[in-house]
Amino acid sequence: MIKEYSPLQTFPLKTGSSFVRPVQSLPEHVKLSDPATDVMTDLSKVSVIGVRAKTSMDKANAKMIRYGVRMLLVLDDNDQVAGLLTANDVLGEKPMSFLQNMGGTHADIMVRDIMTTQRELEVLKIESVRSAKVGEIVATLKKSHRQHALVVAEGADGKQSLCGLFSITQIARQLGAQVQSFELAHTFAEIEAVIPRG
Question: Whose C-alpha in 10, 17, 79, 109 is 20 to 30 A from the C-alpha of 93?
Fold first, then answer.
């Protein structure tokens, strides 16, 4: 016997409707001895914001501001990771250096001209992160002189898939540091100032 199914009632979509975005709830306060996953943005729960390498630097910067992030994942035409663009890349010395070497105007600079390329990126493996502490992530970021660390899962075929990321400013906030500057040295100084309490 085939069961009969009734259609559900439908309604018009109201003007001004938005949509649900994935949200990850991280602990508000952590200590250096807490699990590293307490400060990791889990990309299975939060969408990473991406940009194409051919996008203008100014458009990419506007996208960072609009989404309230300081890092964009640069994707190629096959949606594979081509690199990383940070606010420091946009606001630092890279644009001026590019213009001095190549000429042109600020509006001519593309993401590909100032991004950190995939070949330059180092990643952490999720297996290591799962057994690591917050303090080890801070030490890793400090050693690499970077504000962000990418986390990958590796399949049986050896292919990597980006599954998480760390941001030193996010970690500093969760440790209770008052991050006043986006300069790396100042951020680490702020973290070190709260360590005796953490």
Answer: 79
Residue 7 is assigned to a structural domain of this protein = no
Residue 138 is part of a domain; what is its CATH number?
3.10.580.10
114 within domain boundaries: yes
Under a CB-based contact definition with an 8 Å cutoff, are residues 194 and 177 in contact? yes
Give, as one character, the DSSP assignment of residue 70.
S
Distances (CA, A) of 49 to 12, 64, 117: 30, 8, 17
pLDDT digits (tens, 9 = 90+) for 179-197: 655 556 666 677 777 665 4
Start-to-end C-alpha separation, the chain:
66
CB 72 within 8 A of CB 85: yes
pTM over 0.90: no
